[in-house]
Specification:
Elements lengths: L9 H17 L3 E4 L6 E4 L4 E3 L9 E4 L8 E4 L4 E6 L3 H4 L7 H20 L2 E7 L3 H6 L2 H6 L2 H4 L36 H6 L6 E5 L11 H9 L3 E7 L1 H14 L3 E10 L5 H13 L1 E3 L1 H5 L2 E2 L1
Parallel strand pairs: 3-5, 6-7, 6-9, 7-8, 9-10, 10-11
Antiparallel strand pairs: 1-2, 2-3, 4-5, 4-12
Helix pairs in contact: 9-10
Amino acid sequence: MRSVVKSADEPRITASLRQAKRLASEMPQALTFGPEGDGWVYDRNTKSYDLARGASSARFTIRTTAGPPDTSITIAPSRSALVVVDMQNYFLHPRCSAHPSGLAAVERTLEVIERCRDIGVKIIWLNWGLAEEDLGAMPAAAQRSFASNLILPPSGASTPARNGFGSDMGEGRGRLLMAGSWNARLYDPLQVASRADADLFCDKDRVSGLWHGETPLARALAAGGFRTLLFAGVNTDQCVLGTLADAYYQGWDCVMVDDCCATTTPGGQEVSVYNAAKVYGFVVNSKSILEGSIA
């Protein structure tokens, strides 16, 4: 008969496991995070986060798709908004940019918008929309990032025409990201899906729509009493993440809808999704929203 030789470390390992199990059993089933009346409750048994803050109205539960497995979040639709970032002609229309992953994200975003309307989540359109006074106040770094063609002129035809904020893009596309111009309009399928009588429309003049407390988005969120923000849009690692991170810093719940976001930056999608799930909040996808349960 084959003998079993026990390691000298086995009693110590067994004792450590027993201690870990004992400590786990002594931990409360429910953990609370945040200030009283404005926090989250995490149920360790069901791996679920309650973000509804005691709302007596409808509650919507969504499974997460990144981070710890088998986790879900429950939100109060009446206190939640889907923020659609920069899904404008300038970033998506073939006359302005080549963004195939962005166009794919549009299709999924349209489905999520319909679902959000059904359950009572507000739709907020957050877009570049510059006024004349914004041009003179624009920081150097922001100006440079939209003037790359002046620094290194393209060798051939350049569809994006990045000659600086307010420059004429030509061919009827209007001045670059100026409010009211064709290139700053919502991409056509989203323009059709938007509702002037129900949605909120917020212009921004920086990568982030929440870079200070009096931006149009900040005022809209405060006025509407929103606590949970779902994010869709382009580009994931730039304007979407910039706004999401500022929302996190200022205390809103942040939920990235990863397949409704897209970027042309190599590796930008993956690291943004990782950080959203690990640090800033939660990550879901369009399928988990469509399959979410309302109660």
